[in-house]
Amino acid sequence: MGRISSVGRGTTETTQAGMEVTLLDDFETTDGWKAFASDGAKAKVGVRAGISGQSVCLDYELGHTHGYALISKELPMDLPANFEFVFFLRQDTPQANMEFKLIDPDGNTFMKKIYSLGSPNRWKKMVVRKDDILWAWGPARDAPLKQIRRTEFVVTGASRRGRICIDRLMLRPLPAGGPHRRSEREPWAGYVPRWLSEEQAYWTIVGAPEDENEAIICEDGTIEPLKRGFSVLPLLHMNGRVVSRNDARLAQSLEDGHLPVPAVDWRYGHVAMRIQLYAHGKAGESSAYAKYSIRNEGTRKVSGNLLLLVQPYQVYPPWQGGGGFSPIQRISYDDGVVKVNGRRSIWLLSAPDDFRAYTEDQGPGTGVQTFDTAGEPFAHTRAEDADGFAAGLIRYHFDLRPNESQDFYVVFPLHDREPDMDVTTAPSEVARRYEERLRETIEYWQQQVNRVGIRMPEQAILDTFKANIAYNLITRDGPALQPGSRSYDKAWMRDGSIAAVAMLQVGQTQVAMDFARWYAGYQRESGEVPPIIDTKAQNPLWEEDEKGLVEYDSQGEFVWLIAQCYDYTRDRSFLEEMFPHVIKALQFTQYLRRQRLTPEYRDAPPEKRVFYGILPPSTSHEGYDMKHSYWDDFWALKGWEEARRMAEILGRTDLLPWIDKEYADFRKCVYDSISLVSKIKKIDCIPGCAELGDIDPTSTAASIVYCDQLANMPREQLNNTFDYFYEKLKSRLEPDAEYRFTPYETRSISAYIRLGRKERALQLLRFILACRRPPGWNHLAEVVHSDERFPTYIGDMPHTWVGAEFII
């Protein structure tokens, strides 16, 4: 390719391949570049020294907001059929979460998220290819990227304040059908977590019951002991070559197929490595125990090294929010203990042959790319890096005859309590205690997942069913049922009620009742049941109090949960204890409805009359922002139904006239609204919300699976809704289909059964099972993409609300 540095702004030159390269902006001045920021944030544009000449910089302060800052410029141009943008980036923080945006003349926004990581104040060349850029929002989801009107560089929440500088923005045409973004791997790609190569990875969790801390293990065997913390990545070194996950065949499994003792198996030639992880100990005192087993399955002796890299990178990727870089300013090794940032974080129960501290300031994988076995062991046991790129390499040597194996043991304390073993403990005693605690862990989880007998011919279904019982118990913090360990490490009534009912169905009745009692303690004086409780925050209800979160489904879900607890336990004292909370929740629901029972809505034109008598807008339905979602209404109807039943059980017949009147009027208003929306929007399906008249089968499924509205639903519209969903399902089963969906669709399996369409239910079940990643860990994320390596938000792994829906 010809040199570009001498090309002036807006000019082109021809490459050796005959392609013209256009310099769109040399950033010598701020001409045309404007700074913008979200509410509460600040942005300022300026000029500083660039990679050649000057560069344009964005100084930003995001404060405590979840906002953004950006620079924007009108750069109208036609784009070739295939292309890449090239620019140079410098940041003054170790990690910069950015968005490169292109806006077309019609207002469609196309975006590439950039997770730039590296030592601050160094220029890096950034390349964004056409197939990296996705439609984000705008009037036409399928709009082609042929023209652009404006270009933006956006900073999001990687750091609260800082500066990014941009220099030399170029457009380079590429041949049609050019290389895919993942066809070219960096030489260090296997030495660091996948997210540094912009590839999605998958993980699972281990944890003690009711504990707040869980460790995660990635599909390649990388372990992240603590949330937002460092990771330990495994490699092999054999015959002078470093062997990474990209060189080996990998497989994942759980103990007995469903117990939360995960393992990752590597196969490379005749050498096998198994990494096993489990958690043991009381809540608040537990540790994660790891065993690295190397086995020679060949006919000749093999020698090599197990390398464990302690790195300042999470397994949890940056596109999850809060993932990515985890700074290590100080790392040291002494007497079998690795200290990370001053904390005794890794206990090596097997004595290592070497530990080398270093810094990754020259880029990811620095320590491995320069690794050799020469040199004095333990010569460099300490490293510091102000930017957080300190790291360490643990080395274990092995010499194995045919069919011989060797085990190496490591403990990761999940709290400040130190293990009762260390490097001075006799190897035989270490092995004995490890196996003893493993046996105790297995026996405990066998008891938890087998309280209810169940038989079925397909083992994968049964294993997934049982595994998700355990996962729901692991993500439980004290009495709080939570849908995850990393992304969703707090309690929702929406998620928690489903999880609690799933626990009731599998014999974990005390878990469900404890959750209901605990949640009731946060009910507001008004009767409102808060949608989210974050016990790790100073104010557990901060999302409502500070963010203004509005969700109204929690009222009905709470009442339903109380009724379900009674149905499975027949505990009258529990029902008597909780019934006052039920009445308060209904009174708050009544208060909400009154906001839409006024003449303003009753006598309004049809477009506004659709809101008459239903609940006000909220964000309960996660696909909407402040809409009149029928999801809320169906749950509220269920609350009134269950309250009537509870009142009869407790002999509170004085409440029945009030309950019956409210329920009857509410139900009439809901179905009148659905009918009117269908007429206005000219749809023959059940609408998801009153404003949009959209089709949302997954939301509608809850109305018949949990809220028991099948008998009240307009049957033809209901059938059409799930016919529509079935067509979407069939499209995903086509070869090379591209899709992104949420496995909340699991509840539609039960919906199809209730509609008498068992074959469709079975097809959906098979599809959901095929979306377990990896299959051997028998769990589901919140979001599934057809391209398993596509970097996108997936919620938690496992997402235990989804797992609970699978159980139910």
Explain how this protein is built.
- Helices cover 27% and strands 27% of the residues.
- The chain is α+β, with helices and mostly antiparallel strands and 808 residues long.
Quick overview:
The chain is an alpha+beta fold and 808 residues long. It is built from 17 helices and 34 strands.
Provide key terms for this protein.
808 residues, alpha+beta, Jelly Rolls, Beta-galactosidase, Chain A, domain 5, Glycosyltransferase, nine-stranded antiparallel β-sheet, seven-stranded antiparallel β-sheet, 27% helix, 27% strand
Please indicate the percent range of residues in DSSP E strands (runs of 2 or more): 25-35%
Main CATH class of the largest domain: Mainly Alpha
Count of the domains: 3
Radius of gyration, in Å, reads 29 Å
Structural category: alpha+beta
**Overall pLDDT level:** 93
Q: Overall 3D geometry? A: globular
Question: CATH architecture of the largest domain, please?
Answer: Alpha/alpha barrel
Helix content: 25-40%
Q: Which regions contain 5 or more consecutive residues with pLDDT less than 50? A: 1-9, 179-183
CATH topology-level name of the largest domain: Glycosyltransferase
Number of helices: 17
Task: Give me the secondary-structure topology.
Blueprint: E1 12-14, E2 20-25, E3 34-37, E4 42-49, E5 54-61, E6 69-78, E7 83-91, E8 95-103, E9 109-117, E10 124-129, E11 134-137, E12 147-155, E13 161-173, E14 203-206, E15 215-218, E16 223-224, E17 231-238, E18 241-243, E19 249-255, E20 259-268, E21 271-280, E22 287-296, E23 302-311, E24 330-334, E25 337-340, E26 343-348, E27 354-359, H1 366-369, E28 382-384, E29 390-400, E30 405-413, H2 427-449, H3 459-474, E31 491-492, H4 493-505, H5 509-520, E32 532-533, H6 542-545, H7 554-569, H8 572-594, H9 599-602, H10 606-609, H11 630-649, H12 656-681, H13 697-705, H14 715-732, E33 740-741, H15 747-754, H16 758-770, E34 784-785, H17 800-807
